[in-house]
C-alpha cells in the first residue's frame, strides 16, 4: 500500500497538526486518503458510528480527509488512569487495565497483529495512508517495543517526515540527535525535515537550514509558521501552556476545572470559538473567582479527581458558588461528581469504595464493568424545547435519581433530553449535568445555553439559528491546510501516482 509517515523529535512537535493538514491537502488533490496511528495514549477520545473508541485526533484527521472515522485508524488506544496503569482499548473495545511494566508483555503481539490487520483493511479501501507516530521515534529504552513509530514506517516502507518544534529551542540538536539514534534502515526512510512553529524573519533561518542539510544529507522540506491553537493537543499538558486572556469583546466567562485526569476537553472547543465567550481553565488549587458558569469536565478517574477537589477546597468553593445562584454544568465524570454518592465496588477506576459527591444533584452513580460507548441523537427539553442534539457517550458509571427511588414526585430536576438518562437540570439551583460529549458542537443548543447565562447578566440573547460546530471546524481545517501547503514541499514523499 502507498503510505507516508509523520514522526516528531519530541512530543508536541506538531505531528498531529501536520498529519491533519496532509489529510486535507491530499484529499483536495483527489486522493482517497485515510489517517492512521497504530497506538495512541490520550484521554481525548471519540466514538465511531459503530461504537468503537479511537483518539479524538484521528477523528479530526478523518474529517480532514473527508471520510468517516473508524477503529482501524487507531487500533490501540491507551487511557492513563493515574496509578501507573492504563485502560487498554483494542480495535475500539476495552480489553483490560494494565500497568506500564506489564503492558508490552501482555499486549505487544496482540497489538501488532491489530495494527497489521488494520493497515491491510485501510490499504484495500484507500489510495494513501497518512501515518502518525507518537512521542519520539528515538527513545532507545523503548524502541524494541515501539508499536507506533519506525516499526510502522518500516513495515510500510513509508517515506517519512521528521517534524521539529523550533519554538522551544534546540531544534537543530533535536533533529541531529534523533537521526543519530535511528538505525540506518530507519534513517533511510526520513525523506524530509519539517521545522514547525517558526516565528520571526525567515531569512535568519537560512544559514541553519543549509548547515542542517549538509550535516544530515536530508532536505528541510518545510518551515511552518506559528499558528495559534487551531486544534488542541492530544493531552492535557497543552492546557498548562495556555495563557488566560479575556477576549476583547467577551461578555461571558466560563470556568472549566482542569481536573488532574481531565478527558475530552475538546468538548469546549465550540465555546472557545464563540466571540462573546472567554473560557478559562482553572486548577483545583486556584481560586474559583466569579465566572458566569463553572464546568466540571470529563475525567478518566472520577472518584480520584473528586477527592482532589475536596482536598484542595475547590469542592466547597463550587458548592458555595452554586448556593449563591451560580450555574454549574457537569459532563460525564463531572456529571457524576455533582451527585450525592459515587461507588466503585470493584475498583475499576482504581479507587475502590463509596464516596460522597458534591450533592448538587440527587444522583447515585455506580462504576460498572461494561462501558457505554455509542453515538446519540436526542431532542432537547431544556433550555429550549425541540432542538435536535447529537453527540456520544463514553462512560462506565450508571447514574440514577435518588428521588425517583423514594417516590418523591416534587423534584426540581427535569430531563435535559427526551432520553431522561442522558442528562438532568435542577431548575431551582441552575445545576446541569449530562453524559453527552460533543454537546456544545450543536450550535442552536449551545446558543440556547449561553442565552440562559446571558439572561442572568441582563444581556440580550444571541441568535440561535446558527450552524453546528462542524462547519467552523471545516473552515479551520481548510485554513490549516492552506497554511501548511504554502510552506511545505511534498515532492520528496508523495507517490507519483494514486492507487
> Strand order across the biggest sheet?
15-13-16-18-25-24-23
Overall strand count: 25
- Using only CA atoms, what is the Rg? 23 Å
What oligomeric arrangement do these chains adopt?
A: single chain
Round the mean pLDDT to the nearest integer and report it.
92
What structural class do the secondary elements suggest? alpha/beta
Q: What is the makeup of the main sheet?
A: 7 strands, mixed
- Total helices: the number is 15
Terminal Cα span: 8 Å
What's the helical proportion of residues? 25-40%
- Beta content: 25-35%
Can you tell me the residue ranges where pLDDT is under 50 for at least 5 consecutive residues?
none
**Morphology call:** globular
Describe this protein with a few key phrases.
499 residues, alpha/beta, six-stranded parallel β-sheet
Helices and strands in order:
Blueprint lengths: L2 E6 L6 H14 L4 E4 L2 E3 L3 E3 L5 E3 H10 L10 E5 L4 E6 L2 E7 H26 L2 E5 L17 H7 L3 E6 L5 H11 L2 H4 L2 E9 L7 H11 L3 E6 L11 H4 L11 E6 L4 E2 L5 H4 L4 E6 L10 E4 L1 E2 L2 H11 L1 H10 L3 E5 L1 H5 L3 E4 L8 E4 L6 E17 L8 E14 H5 L6 E3 L7 E4 L4 E4 L8 H14 L12 H18 L13
Parallel strand pairs: 1-9, 1-10, 2-9, 3-6, 10-11, 11-12, 13-15, 13-16, 16-18, 18-25, 19-21
Antiparallel strand pairs: 4-5, 6-7, 7-8, 14-17, 19-20, 21-22, 23-24, 24-25
Helix pairs in contact: 1-2, 1-15, 5-7
Describe the structure.
- With 499 residues, this protein is of the alpha/beta class.
- Helix content is 31%, strand content 28%.
- The chain contains 15 helices and 25 strands.
- The chain has helices at 15-28, 56-65, 100-125, 150-156, 171-181, 184-187, 206-216, 237-240, 269-272, 302-312, 314-323, 333-337, 402-406, 443-456, 469-486, and strands at 3-8, 33-36, 39-41, 45-47, 53-55, 76-80, 85-90, 93-99, 128-132, 160-165, 190-198, 220-225, 252-257, 262-263, 277-282, 293-296, 298-299, 327-331, 341-344, 353-356, 363-379, 388-401, 413-415, 423-426, 431-434.
- The strands form six sheets. Strands 15-13-16-18-25-24-23 form a seven-stranded mixed β-sheet. Strands 2-9-1-10-11-12 form a six-stranded parallel β-sheet, with helices on both faces.
- Helix 1 packs parallel to helix 2.
- The N and C termini lie close together (8 Å).
Amino acid at each position: 500500500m502507498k503510505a507516508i509517515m509523520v514522526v516528531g523529535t519530541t512530543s508536541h512537535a506538531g505531528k498531529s497538526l501536520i498529519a491533519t493538514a496532509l489529510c486535507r491537502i491530499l484529499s483536495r488533490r483527489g486522493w482517497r486518503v485515510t489517517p492512521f496511528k497504530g497506538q495512541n495514549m490520550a484521554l481525548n477520545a471519540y466514538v465511531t458510528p459503530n461504537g468503537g473508541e479511537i483518539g479524538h485526533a484521528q477523528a479530526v484527521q478523518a474529517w480532514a480527509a473527508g471520510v468517516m472515522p473508524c477503529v482501524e485508524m487507531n487500533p490501540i488506544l491507551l487511557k492513563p488512569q493515574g496509578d501507573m496503569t492504563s485502560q487498554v482499548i483494542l480495535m475500539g473495545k476495552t480489553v483490560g487495565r494494565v500497568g506500564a511494566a506489564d503492558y508490552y508483555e501482555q499486549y505487544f503481539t496482540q497489538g501488532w497483529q491489530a495494527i497489521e490487520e488494520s493497515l491491510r483493511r485501510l490499504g484495500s479501501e484507500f489510495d494513501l495512508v497518512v501515518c502518525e507516530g507518537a512521542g519520539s521515534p528515538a527513545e532507545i529504552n523503548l524502541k524494541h517495543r515501539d508499536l507506533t513509530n519506525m516499526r510502522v514506517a518500516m513495515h510500510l516502507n513509508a517515506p517519512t517526515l521528521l517534524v521539529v518544534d523550533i519554538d522551544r529551542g534546540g531544534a537543530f540538536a533535536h533533529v541531529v540527535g534523533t537521526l543519530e539514534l535511528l538505525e540506518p534502515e530507519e534513517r533511510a526512510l526520513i525523506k524530509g525535515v519539517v521545522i514547525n512553529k517558526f516565528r520571526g524573519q525567515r531569512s535568519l533561518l537560512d544559514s541553519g537550514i543549509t548547515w542542517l542539510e549538509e550535516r544530515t544529507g536530508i532536505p528541510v522540506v518545510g518551515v511552518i509558521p506559528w499558528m495559534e491553537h487551531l486544534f488542541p493537543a492530544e493531552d492535557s499538558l497543552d492546557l498548562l501552556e495556555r495563557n488566560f486572556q479575556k477576549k476583547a469583546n467577551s461578555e461571558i466567562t466560563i470556568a472549566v476545572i482542569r481536573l488532574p485526569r481531565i478527558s475530552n476537553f475538546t468538548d469546549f472547543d465550540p465555546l472557545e470559538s464563540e466571540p462573546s465567550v472567554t473560557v478559562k481553565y482553572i486548577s483545583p488549587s486556584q481560586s474559583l473567582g466569579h465566572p458566569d458558569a463553572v464546568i466540571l469536565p470529563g475525567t478518566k478517574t472520577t472518584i480520584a479527581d473528586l477527592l482532589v477537589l475536596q482536598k484542595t477546597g475547590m469542592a466547597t468553593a463550587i458548592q458555595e458558588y452554586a448556593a449563591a445562584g451560580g450555574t454549574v454544568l457537569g459532563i460525564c465524570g463531572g456529571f457524576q461528581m455533582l451527585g450525592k454518592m459515587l461507588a466503585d465496588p470493584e475498583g475499576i477506576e482504581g479507587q475502590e469504595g463509596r464516596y460522597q459527591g458534591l450533592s448538587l444533584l440527587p444522583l447515585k452513580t455506580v462504576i460498572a464493568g461494561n462501558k457505554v460507548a455509542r453515538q446519540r441523537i436526542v431532542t432537547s427539553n431544556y433550555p429550549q424545547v425541540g432542538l435536535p442534539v447529537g453527540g456520544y457517550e463514553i462512560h462506565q458509571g450508571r447514574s440514577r435519581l435518588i428521588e425517583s427511588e423514594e417516590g418523591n414526585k416534587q423534584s426540581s430536576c427535569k430531563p435535559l433530553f427526551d432520553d431522561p438518562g442522558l442528562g438532568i437540570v435542577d431548575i431551582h439551583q441552575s445545576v446541569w449535568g449530562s453524559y453527552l460529549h460533543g454537546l456544545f458542537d450543536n450550535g442552536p443548543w449551545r446558543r440556547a445555553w449561553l442565552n440562559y447565562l446571558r439572561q442572568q447578566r441582563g444581556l440580550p440573547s444571541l441568535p440561535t439559528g446558527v450552524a453546528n460546530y462542524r462547519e467552523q471546524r471545516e473552515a479551520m481545517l481548510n485554513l490549516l491546510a492552506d497554511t501548511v501547503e504554502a510552506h511545505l514541499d511534498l515532492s520528496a514523499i508523495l507517490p507519483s501516482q494514486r492507487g
